[in-house]
C-alpha cells in the first residue's frame, strides 16, 4: 500500500497528470481499489482484470493421510503436469471454499489448538491470484467445521456445521463490502456433512447428517424471503419462509460433492450409510442430477468406485472428480471424468495428483502469466 501511495504521488506531481483527465480518473480508481481492501472482489475494473485466456484447475488444502495438511496450491497448469504455489501458512484441516470474481475465500474447518487437538475454526482467509497473496478477513461469528457455503451477490453464506461438542442449525453471512458477519434465518434442523451450491441466486443444501443418520433432504435458501433482524439474531429456531424443502435425492448421503452445470445440479458420491453402533461408513458411488424446473432428481451412471471427501470442478465441458477417500479404505490421487451429455465416466484422462488427498477443495481460477512463470513443478 505504501508503494502504491508513493507511485501515485509521483504521478500526481507530473505535468501529464495535470493535463490528462483519463490519467487522473485511472489513478483515482486505482487508489480507491487499494484503499478499500475488503471490497476488491466486487470492484471489477479493466485494470485489475486478468487477461489469461484459460482458467487453471486449482486444488486447495486437503488431508494427506489422517494428520498432515496439504499446504500447497496445486495447479493442473499444463497438459499432463501438476504445478504448485505456496498456500496459507495456517494448519487448517479441510475447510469450505467460496469464489467471488476470481478471489478465493477459505472458511472454517479445523485447526490445531494449544492442547494438541484439532478444533473447529472461525477463521476466514482470502486469496488473490493476481498477487498470489493471502489476507485474513473477519472471523465467522461461531467456529464451524463440516458446514456448507454459497455466494449470492455481495454475501458469502455459511450454513450449519458443527464443533467437537455441538451441531448447528445457525446460518450467517459475510458482507464483502463491510467485512463483517451477521446471522440470517437458521437452517431448519441441526446438520453437518452436507453440501451447498448456488443456482439461480438460491442456495441449495443437500444431504448431510442429522441425529446420527444420513439424509436425502434437499432444502433451498431464498435470500429475497429473509426474516426480520430480530428473527435473524435470536438463538432459538424461528420458522420463516426463507428455507423451502424440495424433492429429496434418491440416495441419502453426506460428505458428498455438488456442482452446478448448465442450469442443473450434479451430486457425486459421499457416504451413504453410517452405522450408529460402530460409526462405520459405506461409500456411495452413485451420481444424481437435479432439474430445478421439474423439481426432480434423476439417477445417472455411477462412479467406478465410491468415494467421499473428494473435489469436483468443470473442465472442458466435463466434470472432473479428484481424490477423496474410496470406500475400499484407500485415499486416492486419481481423477475421474464425467461427460454429462453422454452420461459416461472415464479414467486416466488427466494425470494423477502429486499426492493422495481427502477433503480437498477444487475450483477454476485465472492466473496472470507473471504468477504462472514462478510456479514450481510438483515432485
TrEMBL record:
Pfam families: Kelch_1. One of its GO terms (biological process) is protein ubiquitination. Gene3D superfamilies: Kelch-type beta propeller. Its main location: nucleus. GO terms for cellular component: nucleus. Keywords: Kelch repeat, Nucleus, Repeat, Ubl conjugation pathway. SMART domains: Kelch (SM00612). It comes from the Eukaryota. The keyword Repeat applies. Pathway: Protein modification; protein ubiquitination. It is found in: Nucleus. Transmembrane segments: none annotated. InterPro entries: Kelch-typ_b-propeller, Kelch_1. PANTHER family: KELCH-LIKE PROTEIN 15, LD33804P. This is Kelch-like protein 15. The lineage of its organism: Eukaryota, Metazoa, Chordata, Craniata, Vertebrata. The gene is LOC121400452.
Amino acid at each position: 500500500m505504501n508503494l502504491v501511495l508513493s507511485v501515485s504521488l509521483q504521478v500526481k506531481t507530473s505535468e501529464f497528470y495535470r493535463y490528462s483527465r483519463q490519467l487522473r480518473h485511472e489513478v483515482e480508481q486505482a487508489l480507491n481499489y487499494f484503499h478499500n481492501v475488503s471490497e476488491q472482489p466486487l470492484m471489477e475494473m479493466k485494470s485489475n482484470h486478468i487477461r489469461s485466456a484459460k482458467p487453471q484447475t486449482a486444488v486447495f488444502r486437503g488431508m494427506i493421510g489422517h494428520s498432515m495438511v496439504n499446504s500447497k496450491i496445486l495447479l493442473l497448469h499444463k497438459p499432463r503436469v501438476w504445478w504448485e504455489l505456496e498456500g496459507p501458512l495456517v494448519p487448517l484441516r479441510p475447510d469450505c471454499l467460496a469464489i467471488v470474481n476470481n478471489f478465493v475465500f477459505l472458511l472454517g474447518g479445523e485447526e490445531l489448538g494449544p492442547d494438541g487437538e484439532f478444533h473447529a475454526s472461525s477463521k476466514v482467509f482470502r486469496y488473490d491470484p493476481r498477487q498470489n497473496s493471502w489476507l485474513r478477513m473477519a472471523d465467522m461469528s461461531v467456529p464451524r467445521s463440516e458446514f456448507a457455503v454459497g455466494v449470492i451477490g455481495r454475501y458469502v453464506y455459511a450454513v450449519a456445521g458443527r464443533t467437537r461438542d455441538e451441531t448447528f442449525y445457525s446460518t450467517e453471512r459475510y458482507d464483502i463490502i463491510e467485512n463483517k458477519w451477521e446471522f440470517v434465518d437458521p437452517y431448519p434442523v441441526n446438520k453437518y456433512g452436507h453440501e451447498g451450491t448456488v443456482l439461480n441466486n438460491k442456495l441449495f443444501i443437500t444431504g448431510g447428517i442429522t441425529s446420527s443418520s444420513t439424509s436425502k433432504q434437499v432444502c433451498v435458501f431464498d435470500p429475497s424471503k429473509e426474516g426480520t433482524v430480530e428473527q435473524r439474531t435470536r438463538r432459538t429456531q424461528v420458522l420463516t419462509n426463507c428455507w423451502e424443502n424440495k424433492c429429496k435425492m434418491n440416495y441419502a448421503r453426506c460428505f458428498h460433492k455438488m456442482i452446478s452445470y448448465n442450469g442443473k445440479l450434479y451430486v457425486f458420491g459421499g457416504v451413504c450409510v453410517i452405522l450408529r453402533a460402530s460409526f462405520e461408513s459405506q461409500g456411495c458411488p452413485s451420481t444424481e442430477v437435479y432439474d430445478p424446473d421439474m423439481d426432480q432428481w434423476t439417477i445417472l451412471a455411477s462412479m467406478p468406485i465410491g468415494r467421499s471427501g473428494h473435489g469436483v470442478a468443470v473442465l472442458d465441458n466435463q466434470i472432473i472428480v479428484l481424490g477423496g477417500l474410496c470406500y475400499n479404505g484407500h485415499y486416492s490421487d486419481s481423477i475421474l471424468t464425467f461427460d454429462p451429455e453422454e452420461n459416461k465416466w472415464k479414467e486416466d484422462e488427466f494425470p494423477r495428483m502429486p499426492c493422495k488427498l481427502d477433503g480437498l477443495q477444487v475450483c477454476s481460477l485465472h492466473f496472470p502469466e507473471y504468477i504462472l512463470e514462478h510456479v514450481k513443478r510438483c515432485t
